[in-house]
Amino acid sequence: MNIQFSPNALKEFKSFDTLYDNPKSKLLPTLHLAQKEFGYLSPEVIEYVATLTELSPAKVKEVASFYTMLHKKPVGKYHIQICTNISCTMMKSRELFSHLKKKLKIEAGETTQDKKFTLSTAECLGGCDKAPTLRINDTYYYQVTPEKMEQLLKELP
């Protein structure tokens, strides 16, 4: 297996032993760490995490497939997720999504040719009281309008 954590990531992984009492408990933080380290959870990364956590590859893949914040294929430098749950939809998140599809010239789940942006929907981002909500990588933005979205895109390096 060619996939291995860097020394720093391996140290972080080993620190999970003091926080969690069984392999299933440390699976989700290990998957997040692996995604941070390798960019996405390829089949090889799934196998590696299974070996580290002493769980079956099927169990690791099952958990990785459940969570939308875990990527099973490469994503752009900026992964933009727009909430499509009821509160955000009522506050025009679908219109915002359409605006971004036109602006970036991609569809849901696609990445721009320059690999800068990936666009997707999310069932709920937990910002119902400040809808519409979107997430760019690990940062959440609330009450986003097409104008505010344009400004956010300009500010990204």
Would you kindly provide a written description of the structure presented here, covering whatever features stand out?
Helices cover 46% and strands 11% of the residues. With 157 residues, the protein is an alpha+beta fold. The chain folds into two domains: 7-66, Arc Repressor Mutant, subunit A, CATH 1.10.10; 78-155, Glutaredoxin, CATH 3.40.30. The chain has a four-stranded mixed sheet with strand order 2-1-3-4, with helices on one face. α2 packs across α3 (43-53). The longest helix has 13 residues, at 7-19. It is elongated, with a radius of gyration of 17 Å.
CATH topology label of the largest domain: Glutaredoxin
By DSSP (H or I, 4+ residues per run), the number of helices equals 7
Cα-to-Cα separation, first versus last residue = 35 Å
Nearest-integer average pLDDT: 94
Structural class by secondary-structure content: alpha+beta
Which architecture name of the largest domain does CATH use?
3-Layer(aba) Sandwich
